Amino acid sequence: MAERRHWYDGMFSTEDWWSFWIGGFFVTLAIIGAATNLPLTGWIVKFNSWVDISKCISASYKGLMGPWTSLIVSYVFFTAILAIAGAIMKWNLKDFIASWTIIFILTAIAYVIGKNAYISAPPNKWPHFGITHGLQLGGAYYILALVIGLLIGNFAPKGFKEFMKKGARPEFFIKIAIVCLGAKLGVKALHSAHYAAHLILSGICATFAGYLLFWPIAYFVLRRLFGYSREWSACFASGVSICGVSAAIATGGAVKAKPIIPILLSTIIVIYATFQMIVYPMLMTKFMLHQPIVAGSALGLSIKTDGADAASGALLDEMMRSAAQLKLGVRWEEGWITLSAIMTKIWIDMFIGVWAFVLAYVWVKYFEGRAAGERVSAMEIWFRFPKFVLGYFYSMLIVMILGFGGIIAVKPLVQAVKPVEGPMRHFFFLLTFTSIGIVTDFRELKKAGLGKLALAYGLVLIGIITPLALLIAWVFHHGMMPPTVK
Amino acid sequence: MEELKQTQDMDEIMESQPWDPIESKLVGYSIILGIIALVVLGFIINVTILK
Fold this sequence. Notes:
The complex is a heterodimer of chains A (486) and B (51).
Chain A: H1 15-36, E1 45-47, E2 57-59, H2 67-88, H3 93-114, H4 117-120, H5 126-129, H6 140-155, H7 158-165, H8 170-191, H9 193-225, H10 230-254, H11 260-287, H12 292-302, H13 306-328, H14 336-367, H15 379-384, H16 388-404, H17 410-439, H18 444-448, H19 451-477
Helix pairs in contact in A: 1-8, 1-16, 1-17, 2-3, 3-6, 3-17, 6-7, 6-17, 8-9, 8-13, 8-16, 8-17, 9-10, 9-14, 9-19, 10-11, 10-14, 11-13, 11-19, 12-13, 12-14, 12-19, 13-14, 13-17, 16-17
Chain B: H1 2-14, H2 21-48
């Protein structure tokens, strides 16, 4: 007899729920700070552009504490929160904290180096730093963090690599960052409510059309051209067309595929997502500078892990804003391109539950020959629903309600939320890059003997999903431009 | 021995099944719905938001 599940199952035992709790906690802390005029989030460390290294970090609220104190307090606070979550999720805390500490330090180093003004400052900022030349590599710290991670993931001794994987949790870090990003959307909506609403509506429509087109085409290709079974093809189609690992796992459950199938697919999904994360922002910056929101949305539709999508969105945001300033002479507001990438992905994540339900229904009705009258529970949708998305909407709505409702004055509200939606979010994005590198081992593909499947995945992803994603993103977002800095 | 078992497992999960006509129908319906969604929603978004 199947084990009975409750709606609250997993609330304290999954990273998905814990990203909701942790992200929500920090946003709530910021709001309490705004309401009470206390600098409750001012201690969060901020990484600044620099030429004088003594100014490379500071507390989010200048003057609250010294830079090193802020860094140490941030480390202690973040470690404590993650350790509490880890303890309840029954992780090996000793290994986690040791590995996380190394990741924290490496990420901070990558961030400091990448923020050097000679490396990343755009030309308009050069006079501010007293420099006359620079590489203008906005977002270099993301690549640096990824490279550090990849070096560990691919070249470190096996024992050390396995140890580092205990702390490298890209999906967890990015989900926390995405919950914080919800607050940013709330702040942005306070300033540009119509634009934010347009982005949300266009994102839903793009996702809906994308689902219905991507999935059956990917399924057909694997089933007919490559001759795989229905279960393989269903998990593959969800992985390549919807939301990578979580969709493949959700689909595996819905169609009762052997558990090994989504696990094997996950390796391929993560490796391709890493490749896309590096290459797509560069190509889009070069060829799509006049359609930045289309480019962001296309990332959301074509990159199949939350971590890689959000990370590449952030990278694209940096690269495109630098390029636009240089080539078009405009300064776009930070964050809108990232938001367009994440917004589309958020909808995709939200629909996983619905799609898993549809697949479960189709499989029960047509393929599994189950007893007549056997039903698929509507609760399946809730079980498959990504819970961090609730945190994203909580953060967005609470800021909008408090700000638009005049319950808290907009200025202190924005100021209090800033350290969470800015410095903390950026740092967790960066932790994701380091972690993705650590968990990505390019040799795994060969070991698993999945060459044919990897070939099929690459073919469908690059030859079908990506062009379709660009088309759909263009249909629903063409002409949308990020607001310019006033 | 373990390698042999792994190979057997892989063979088992790689086992193919014949294509069922209902699969053609479901794939076809989804693609048609997708195209309709793209055209209709694209039209609505274009005349309301992107105009």
